[in-house]
Amino acid sequence: MSGHVVALCGGVGGAKLAHGLARVLAGDELTVIVNTGDDFRHLGLWVSPDIDAVVYALAELSDPVRGWGRREESWNFMAALAGLGGESWFQLGDRDLAMHVERTWRLAAGEPLSAVTERIRRRLGIAASILPMSDATVSTRVETDAGWLDFQEYFVHRRCEPAVRGLDYAGAATAGPLPAALAALARSDLRAVVICPSNPFLSIEPILALPALRAALEAVRAPVIAVTPIIGGEAVKGPAAKMLRELGFESSSGAVARRYAGLADVFISDAADPLPPPVPGMRIVRAATLMTGVAEREGLAREVLRQAAAAS
Amino acid sequence: MSGHVVALCGGVGGAKLAHGLARVLAGDELTVIVNTGDDFRHLGLWVSPDIDAVVYALAELSDPVRGWGRREESWNFMAALAGLGGESWFQLGDRDLAMHVERTWRLAAGEPLSAVTERIRRRLGIAASILPMSDATVSTRVETDAGWLDFQEYFVHRRCEPAVRGLDYAGAATAGPLPAALAALARSDLRAVVICPSNPFLSIEPILALPALRAALEAVRAPVIAVTPIIGGEAVKGPAAKMLRELGFESSSGAVARRYAGLADVFISDAADPLPPPVPGMRIVRAATLMTGVAEREGLAREVLRQAAAAS
Could you tell me which residues are beta bridge partners of residue A150? Predict the structure, then answer.
């Protein structure tokens, strides 16, 4: 079976499944639409953490141990910056910095984020399309018991410690998706849309907050397959479980499934968990979702494609 | 003998004498006014090569072998940038990059170059004052047989290969020096002004092109001591000798002495060269000017101060 696959994802966890999909699909069969709500300016540099995670994963440059950033990384820039009294709460590796510097000056010269990303994708020999969810700026802001916080302030500086009360995706209502994203979703050979195992609040819902993208997703005929980011009631990485609890939901894959009601046709919960309660219009299945290595990424990608075929 | 010393300098060679002066003077006795005509924007970063050379020399962070940049440097940023297809003709070390990133975002936030430099100077524990020649942008441009070139295009990208026909210090006529520079030159305890062994065309004359700074220098009562950047008809480093020849001058320390006529009271030529021909109003002496190590930097600094005392 062939056909095009569109994946929606955020950073590290989602990027792993995107990598698995890229490995089991032909080069031109995958389009990844990436959250940019976490993007921010730091030390004057424009940092797009989720795009970088996807680029590094698909170029097989990710650090396998640290879970973020590039492998074979060094930290001499940060050490020297600390020596100059610069801000050191956000770690920028020497190799990773090349991405931020290259992106920042090209954005300042008027190149859209999508064009910068496309240039880097080609240069790194990545076959799949990688599309930022928008070339317009959308900024995820987090309402907490310590007030409204910019995303990286909440996520990195405060280490997700303040309790979350709500979220806002500033700019999303007027941000247009890329024409290439809408075109990918409208393809007649579309085989599946995959909602990767990313944080629903921080990675997937900012994408869904773009009205034209949400409408295009609701209009696709191909099955939409979502994968749980929660296993055993906890997030594999990041604050998803903590946020579910703080926002008044159960910390479970079932709670994530319910957030995708009306959008996902199939929800893959982890094989180690009991099957979540039914959600109307959604088939809930179980599979191994923990991607400890490349084989598991490929295995989950194949399972997603199997479920899509079964749902078509 | 005590009193304040003001040094004018460019990059590497001048920074060595500034370092020697800093080591033989008391901490608050030295003000270094640094050329900024070479400053340029690269990859969106504001690079001030001469300020960095002086900061690194005075903080004893310079690379002793390479002759520019920081010691214990690594190049992983450049390697990654090349991998992304970025411009790699100007080398930025991982540690050095901290300076450019910190400076760039602070300038963009509205902090003047002098304030950024002062903050870094203090943080690195440098006792001497380091003043950019101006907070306004002055850009050295080089007229060559290949047309007008921006300085770094000529200096780094083209490796000084095009023959020089003329120079322009764009913005100098309207750029104001720092009040602190004028105040240092007006001090009643001013003991000497030192024109460091820097390229006259590229490092010293951009400073002298600022009308208020030139006027202040001409008004000082303290002796002005210039040191040759030319030994044995050749520059210790850089294109000074080549530029002298291309501009129709003899490639000799005497030719540099004549450029400082009416400004310098004493000119120190190298001990290995014959005494240059007389220049009206200038005492020309010989001393060891090659600064191969810290002892030679200190030795030359002491000789400069001796000549100043003798000329007072």
Answer: A141
Tell me: pLDDT of A260 over 70: yes
Interface subset of A 85-124, CB within 8 angstroms of B: 85-86, 94-99, 101-102, 104-105, 108, 119-120, 123-124
Residue-level pLDDT at A1: 66
pLDDT at A88: 87
What whole-number distance in Å separates Cα of residue B118 and Cα of residue B130? 7
Could you tell me the CA-to-CA distances from B273 to B175, B284, B306, B307 in Å, in that order? 38, 12, 20, 18
What ipTM was estimated for this complex?
0.92
Q: Which residue of A has its CA nearest to B79?
A: A95
pLDDT digits (tens, 9 = 90+) for A143-168: 999 999 999 889 888 899 999 999 99
Task: For residue B46, count CB atoms less than 10 angstroms from its CB and return exposed for 0-12, middle for 13-18, buried for 19 or more.
Answer: buried
All domains in chain B, ordered by first residue:
4-311 (3.40.50.10680)
Residue B1 predicted with pLDDT over 70:
no
The closest of B45, B47, B52 to B86, measured between CA atoms, is: B45
Give the Cα separation of A208 and A218 in Å (integer). Answer: 10
Residue whose C-alpha is closest to residue B34's, from B53, B17, B51: B51
Report the alpha-carbon distance of residue A207 to residue A199 in Å, rounded: 12
